[in-house]
Amino acid sequence: MFETFIFQFTSLFTMINPVAAVPIYIALTETMTPKAARWVAMRAAVTAFIALSVFALLGEAIFSFFNISVNGLRVAGGILFFVMGFEMLRGRTVPKRVDGETDGDFGSDVAVTPIGIPMIAGPGAITMVILVIQEGKTAASTASSSISLFIAIGLVCALTAVVLASGRQLLAKLGRSGSKILMRLMGLIVMLIAVEFFFAGIKPYVIDIARSIPA
């Protein structure tokens, strides 16, 4: 079971890549107090844990019921991230805070989407947990494999919260001018991530269309 856990943990950590969520987290929590920003990181991690656990248990049934695929999630996530990255490049944040909205209300919204889903619990991580559960059903140690997967999900999400909070501390040391420069650089990185998401998702559709065209 330990070897299975190590494999699941390392694979999931690599797939989630917490560092990739830092740019969006920093941009959305820039004006918050350190305490409020840490709360957003924790809530985002909890959201991701719940989402991945639900998809591990019911993912295949959900996709089948709505007749959707993970590739569609990649395309949608890519579009969302591109818009966010473009706004960050212009010195703005998406979603935008409503006038009079408190840190708590705004933080609750952004912690769930887009930080928790689909930045942390993204298409790759969702696909992986579904596949691991399916492989576990064909193995002799189904229960131990499933238990180790949920432990791995919990630890990876907890580490992700730590990584996000550390990114916030880096922002505090840069000052206002440095944070503005970093935000624009992060916006460019988010746009690049968005392009990878989008084309990874749309590629299978293009291949299917090409195969359906008569020679």
TrEMBL record:
Record's bilayer topology term: Multi-pass membrane protein
One Gene Ontology cellular component annotation held by this UniProt entry: plasma membrane
Family, as annotated: Belongs to the UPF0056 (MarC) family.
Residues forming coiled coils: none
Species in which this protein is naturally found: Pseudidiomarina homiensis
Keyword Protease belongs to the record: no
One Pfam family in the UniProt entry: MarC
Cross-referenced PANTHER family: UPF0056 MEMBRANE PROTEIN YHCE
Designated name of the protein: UPF0056 membrane protein
Primary localization: membrane
Alphabetically ordered keywords of this record: Cell membrane, Membrane, Transmembrane, Transmembrane helix
Domain of life: Bacteria
Membrane-spanning parts: 6-28, 40-66, 72-89, 110-133, 145-165, 185-207
Compartments it resides in: Cell membrane
